């Protein structure tokens, strides 16, 4: 996504940064910058003042496990009282909406259920849209979000992170449905994740890949960083993508994905963030902020 | 009989052929409960080739048991096949491991473990994956993955790379599908020992002292692994319409066999007829 600078008062800074980042001039009035030249909540984007909605990642951004990021509750209140719309978006394949909502309430975040949009919600939406009866390779807890969906005589396969389903028999059951023409829906395609013991654990991605290889099919991935995930998340808000900003700790899945969908993206240095993550995506993040409260300050200061 | 065979394409070359490689499962027999069943005509076809003095090897990606067990199973069905006529990935990978001084962490079927009896598995430095069947579950795969990514240079060796096979009239995911999972998880490519690796076909030919791969035929029911793999190595590749063959394999998007036959019996009859 292009980084637009319209105001001449920022040109000096821009020119300074041109020593570090290439600048392309695409018209007399506009300078397109291909990189981020700001750090710590200072970013001069001409369109950040037109933000109307904020998407917020949960784990690693608002809280880490059962501890809130310091000051995050108050920061969320400031954001909400500014009149900006908020949505809480997360890739989850195990935790249903209820669990996420309860945790946020317990941590003192004032959110509405209707403001939470997850990869499971997105998968349910796709299942309803396709009018299929899915075989759910999901843990029991996650099946809660599919209540009311018919699963008898399945003609589709939904794959999340499900250690209890990832066995030879269940995988083959899914494989045979796919070979008979069932669509393959992946909650998300993470390669692995890290547990508190410091070890890496296989994510759903490898098992989705295995089914893809076996059947020569491509899965429809519904979670972050897919473009459709971000578009679906704001569909009921009636706000355009360019007036939306995503805040998250995952450079690729949160920020990169949102920006590819046409949104702004703010990377926070909490959760899974590691130094240099911001350099792993192109275009770079709209801004890099220390944490969620700093990201909120940045957004609110851009509005005025 | 409507065969769809164009005899000229491969039959004219039969006179130059020095040896034949045949796949086992889906060509000699269909696997299933109680040892499976011989494909009609295949027992006699093998006997005819042997009686005619045609060098013959059985080239399989079977990794759920040892070559001795494979031979025993086939002989119980009525075949007359010796273990050293069978070329399989497990014995092949043992040579490969010794040659490269590799010590494997094994994710394989328990029944094939005797093939690895002489292999050092202490302090492993590579992951070897075979068709492990029920062993392919989250716990086992996760342990193998954690081991793989603990290596400085993760090395993944796959015994074949089949997508699926047929057993008891049911299609089942093959080793390649689970290796694809490891490849995706660790963001690496596996080294394949078995079909369709050219080295594996070469090794099979060497056991018959055949030095020119153009002078050999491979027949199998896997269009990509058997037929395509053999052709890449220079052999003639014949597709047989038994086993896991599905009509949708014909024509295939990128593999054009040198011929199609309805079964091994038809192939052998045509081969012997055109050899004279």
TrEMBL record, chain A:
Keyword Metal-binding in annotation: yes
Keywords: Magnesium, Metal-binding
GO cellular component: cytoplasm
Cofactor(s) needed by this chain: Mg(2+)
Pfam families: Hydrolase_6 (PF13344), Hydrolase_like (PF13242)
GO molecular function ontology, one term from the record: metal ion binding
InterPro entries: HAD-like_sf, HAD-SF_hydro_IIA, HAD_sf, LHPP/HDHD2
Gene3D superfamilies, per database record: HAD superfamily/HAD-like (3.40.50.1000)
Annotated transmembrane regions: none
PANTHER family membership: 4-NITROPHENYLPHOSPHATASE-RELATED, HALOACID DEHALOGENASE-LIKE HYDROLASE DOMAIN-CONTAINING PROTEIN 2
Family affiliation: Belongs to the HAD-like hydrolase superfamily.
NCBIfam families tied to this protein: HAD-SF-IIA, HAD-SF-IIA-hyp3
Protein name according to UniProt: Haloacid dehalogenase-like hydrolase domain-containing protein 2
Species in which this protein is naturally found: Paralvinella palmiformis
From TrEMBL, chain B:
GO molecular function, one term: metal ion binding
One Pfam family linked to the record: Hydrolase_like
EC number of this enzyme: 3.6.1.1
Catalytic activity line of the entry: diphosphate + H2O = 2 phosphate + H(+)
Record CDD domains: HAD_PPase
Superkingdom to which the source organism belongs: Eukaryota
Major localisation: cytoplasm
Keyword set, alphabetical order: Cytoplasm, Hydrolase, Magnesium, Metal-binding, Nucleus
Subcellular localization: Cytoplasm; Nucleus
Gene3D superfamilies assigned: HAD superfamily/HAD-like
Class of this enzyme: hydrolase
Cofactors required: Mg(2+)
SUPFAM superfamilies xrefs: HAD-like
Cited InterPro entries: HAD-like_sf (IPR036412), HAD-SF_hydro_IIA (IPR006357), HAD_sf (IPR023214), LHPP/HDHD2 (IPR006355)
GO CC term (a single one): cytosol
Task of the protein: Phosphatase that hydrolyzes imidodiphosphate, 3-phosphohistidine and 6-phospholysine. Has broad substrate specificity and can also hydrolyze inorganic diphosphate, but with lower efficiency.
Family of the protein in this entry: Belongs to the HAD-like hydrolase superfamily.
This protein's name: Phospholysine phosphohistidine inorganic pyrophosphate phosphatase
Organism of origin: Paralvinella palmiformis
